[in-house]
Amino acid sequence: MGSAVTSLDPATRTVTTATGAQLGYDKLLLATGSKPRRLDVPGADLDGVYYLRNVEDSERLKIEFAEAKRVVIIGAGWIGLETAAAARAAGLDVTLLVSGDMPLQHVLGPEVAPIFDELHRSHGVDLRYRTTAAELTGRHGTVTGVMLSDGTRIEADMIIVGVGVAPRTELAAAADLKIDNGIVVDEHLRTSDPDIFAAGDIAHAYNPRLGRHIRVEHWANARRQGVVAAKAMLGQDAVDARPSYFFTDQYDLGMEYTGDIGPAGYDQVIFRRYADSRQVIVFWLYEQRIQAGMNINIWDVADDIERLDQVSTPDQRRRISPIRLSRWPA
Questions:
Q1: Which H helix or E strand runs over 68?
Q2: How far is CA 248 from CA 81, 253, 257, in A?
């Protein structure tokens, strides 16, 4: 514990730590994760600017929530929306900066993203669309507000930045492993060096079900890939071809998303609605094949959605749907 690795030498199968110690290996797993992208505007180094990546960051935010009154959140992805919900629950005034037209539009598309727009508006969040932070203003080294790209200024006691993460590939790159949107690995999570594997946020892994490489930034993916990598390093024929999975909890909304929308995107969105307006299941299709599904406030159906994601023909889907999904309204 507490031993940072500073270099990796595939030729001698050794890693070197910051203390100069060398460790040999037969097989090596890289699981260095990702790091938050930093805000690159004047004032970004002021006190009162926070990022959320680890437990310590979370604990620090909870302490600050108890002292602050106004928070501006830069970025409307999963981190931005979840911290907005937490800040509102703590009683803060929240302004959320959205660079595009809707929160999560790049993930959910314009048909589904309004669900999260309405959710946060109904809980009192001030959403500012098509605007970004041009400068953070401060006094005596502490942040006091944000100048927006449209020329307006918002006062704030604290700023939370959630503008994405970058895979930590420095060790792999220095060791001449193949890098392309992360560390490139095969379906067994093996890198371009047969004795080195990679898993988690950094792994741009080949998925035989999809026929392409994909990199997923979620703990569920890291947990799955840890098992696959361990088996593969022990010589077993282990592959993780399951659809991607992630979830979020915001206010009284709980959501699970299962699937992978490919480069071609989707050509149809199907909503299965319920009497309770807070409950819905959404499917994204391309050429009549389900690419992904999302269940909101409906539980114990993610496995069924995963099965639908993995079948390849309409006939297979018809055989599954009446049996497994008969309780779902059309």
A1: none
A2: 9, 8, 9
Under 8 Å between Cβ of 186 and 167 = no
- Can you tell me whether residue 282 is helix, strand or coil? strand
Q: Take residue 14 and report the two structure tokens written for it.
A: 């050794």
Q: How far apart are the C-alpha atoms of 98 and 158, rounded to whole Å?
A: 17
CA 98 centroid distance within chain: 17
Rounded CA gap, 312 and 211, in Å? Answer: 13
Could you tell me the domains of the chain? 5-34+166-233 (3.50.50.60), 38-163 (3.50.50.60), 245-324 (3.30.390.30)
Tokens standing for residue 18: 């910051």
Q: What is the pLDDT of residue 323?
A: 32
| Cβ-contact 282, 271 below 8 angstroms | yes
pLDDT at 326: 34
How far apart are the two ends of the chain, measured CA to CA in Å?
Answer: 53
- Please give the helix or strand (H or E) that residue 304 lies within, else none: helix 302-310
* Lookup: tokens for 191: 């890198």
Long-range contacts of 171-175 (CB under 8 A, 24+ apart): 171/5, 171/7, 171/8, 171/30, 171/32, 172/8, 172/30, 172/196, 172/198, 172/202, 174/7, 174/8, 175/7, 175/8, 175/9, 175/10
Contact, 186 vs 18, CB < 8 A?
A: no
Quote the CA–CA distance of 46 and 154 in Å, as a whole number: 16
How far is residue 185's CA from residue 206's CA, in Å, rounded to a whole number? 6
pLDDT tens digits, 43-88: 999 999 999 989 999 999 999 999 999 999 999 999 999 999 999 9
Query: Which residue shows structure tokens 């299962």?
Result: 258
CA distance 15 to 82: 38
Residue 17: both structure tokens together:
């730590």
